[in-house]
Automatic annotation (TrEMBL):
A Pfam family this chain is assigned to: ECH_1
GO BP annotations, alphabetical order: fatty acid beta-oxidation
Keyword Ligase (UniProt): no
Tree of life domain: Eukaryota
Keywords on record: Lyase
Gene Ontology CC, one term: mitochondrion
GO molecular function: hydro-lyase activity
Family: Belongs to the enoyl-CoA hydratase/isomerase family.
UniProt-recorded name of the protein: ClpP/crotonase
């Protein structure tokens, strides 16, 4: 089950607003709604707009990815790609203590060979779709992120680990398979082939500090003083989410077109030889030159005020 919510980038007072037809769309079957989209009115400051949450919500299985969840995830990614409102996406879980347990192995036991190959192909395409979203994607990790769950996180541009992120890893070799939805390739590009081999060949399970030291996690969230409903087991979960929102707000100070161009420059340029990559960077830079956002940035600097970017 998935929940997709668009809301302000920072914590400010806001009112529940009328949803557009797109945001009101449901991913669920008619008989039993399992996931939904909801929209929030935007606050007055344009720099606070455009943060979307995509929430994994299958608590009874610790968000293990079954066929229905995969279908919903694939559809959600395409909707948020085209919605025109999202400037930053946060991938998170609604389940404290579990980002994603990976593939649903119980379902897989009953799959035919044809059904498994179809599921596997769709998983790879869906993770690639997340990875190629044009705006920044943050994965807010809590509890466990194992196998396909960590592979989902590796598709994000940045990964934040809350205090409770204690079981991370790609243990597929222990089940006589390999990380097969891009995990061997993404981890190798992230930490280098030697470290990737070490983690994948051993199937090692590690905690957030080890992941941070290896370069898998970008930022560590620290638990604040538990109060009220944030006390107890959910405190670490809330800390990771708050940190992710703050990180999104920090990126939100930049122009949304520039953020998209920077992501494209790095992602595609990394696959090119250095000369071609320089040309690619130059081409993207030139697309920004005549934008209203660039002019606003210069004017804001001159007037010594925060820039208000509209993505134009």
């Amino acid at each position: 089950m998935l929940t997709l919510i668009t809301r302000p980038v920072v914590s400010v007072p806001f009112q529940l607003g009328a949803t557009s037809p797109l945001l009101a769309r449901s991913f669920s079957t008619p008989a039993k709604p399992l996931a939904y989209l909801d929209g929030y009115a935007q606050p007055t400051s344009a720099v606070q707009r455009g943060l979307t949450f995509l929430k994994l919500n299958r608590p009874e299985a610790r968000n293990a990815i079954n066929s229905q969840m995969l279908d919903e995830l694939a559809e959600a990614v395409e909707i948020v790609r085209e919605d025109g409102r999202t400037r930053t996406l946060i991938l998170q879980s609604t389940v404290p203590g579990a980002f994603c347990a990976g593939a649903d192995l119980k379902e897989r036991l009953n799959m035919t060979s044809a059904a498994f190959h179809s599921w596997h192909t769709k998983l790879g395409k869906t993770l690639r779709a997340i990875e190629t979203l044009p705006f920044p994607v943050i994965a807010a990790l809590d509890g466990l992120a194992l196998g396909g769950g960590l592979e989902v996180a590796l598709c994000a541009d940045l990964r934040v680990a809350g205090p409770g992120a204690t079981k991370l890893g790609l243990p597929e070799v222990r089940h006589a398979i390999i990380p097969g939805a891009g995990g061997t390739q993404r981890l190798s590009r992230l930490v280098g082939p030697a470290r990737a081999k070490h983690l994948i060949l051993t199937g090692r399970i590690f905690d957030r500090m080890y992941a941070y030291e290896q370069g898998i996690i970008d930022e560590l969230a620290h638990e604040g003083v538990p109060q009220g409903e944030n006390a107890g087991a959910s405190a670490g979960y809330e800390a990771g989410l708050r940190h992710s929102i703050n990180l999104a707000a920090e990126m939100g100070k930049g122009g949304p077109l520039a953020l998209r161009a920077a992501k494209q420059a790095i992602d595609k340029g990394y696959q090119m030889d250095i000369g071609t990559a320089f040309d690619w960077e130059k081409a993207l830079y030139q697309t920004l030159y005549n934008t209203n956002d660039r002019k606003e940035g210069l004017m804001a600097f001159k007037e010594k005020r925060p820039a208000v970017y509209e993505g134009e």
